[in-house]
Amino acid sequence: MDGMDGARPRAPERIAQQEWPTGAAEARALQERLAPLVRHEALDSGAVSLVAGLDVAYSADDDRLAAAAVVLAAPEWEAVDSATVVSSPRFPYVPGLFAFREAPALLEAVARLRTQPDVLLCDGFGVAHPRRFGLACHVGLALDRPVLGVGKTPFVGRADEPAPQRGAWSPLVDGGEVVGRCLRTRAGVKPVYVSVGHRVDLASAADLALRAAPHYRVPEPVRHADRLCRERLAAA
DNA sequence: GCGACAG
DNA sequence: ATCTTGTCGC
């Protein structure tokens, strides 16, 4: 785990296969090495039509988990494809090391999709993370696709309360830098936290998150994925 | 040292 | 994440 010569990951696809961390210290080190590879790129959210939502559900009694990937089509957000995977966690839950727990199953679910989404939306964070490498970044680099993260509760940083109307937002700041956006997707309802995963910039990510959430607080793709993985867990 | 801490 | 019903309000 040290080959400090050519061991630096260049091909994102290798993240899920080689050097999978066995402990927390190792996992954090991997995040620090991969964080610089995250790219912020402008994305024409108006040209986006297929958005995948990713989420995971856990069993209450046994140690199973179900991951779901659902592709919805704008502007009505009807589901056009989906895939689920049932497995068990390969890493304990440690705040900040979320991806090592959920990414394997999520990536497998995405691999089973027959439709290639334009963007993927994760239930969690991207660069709004202690080491600037949350789940959405992990998934983004692994797939080398545009990914953004939407979290329901703040993890790092602080943000002022956005104005009460839908669309209002305030920057999420951590350590002196803007790592995300506190966005009001629904008037008078608690805001969500959007951050860049990979290959999108913050403005594009927030714009997409807002248009993907025309009725509820949580974006449709994530809501759908949430529902699907729960059903899958109950059925299997 | 202590508390906080995505799902 | 998960354990959990009804209820108030738009």
From TrEMBL:
Keywords: Cytoplasm, DNA damage, DNA repair, Endonuclease, Hydrolase, Magnesium, Metal-binding, Nuclease. It catalyses: Endonucleolytic cleavage at apurinic or apyrimidinic sites to products with a 5'-phosphate. It is found in: Cytoplasm. The keyword Hydrolase applies. Pfam families: Endonuclease_5 (PF04493). Residues 1-22 are annotated as: Disordered. Its cofactor is Mg(2+). Residues 1-13 have a biased composition (Basic and acidic residues). One of its GO terms (molecular function) is endonuclease activity. Its main location: cytoplasm. The record marks Y93 as: Interaction with target DNA. Mg(2+) binds at D55, D123. Its EC number is 3.1.21.7. DNA repair enzyme involved in the repair of deaminated bases. Selectively cleaves double-stranded DNA at the second phosphodiester bond 3' to a deoxyinosine leaving behind the intact lesion on the nicked DNA. Belongs to the endonuclease V family. This is Endonuclease V. It comes from Streptomonospora algeriensis.
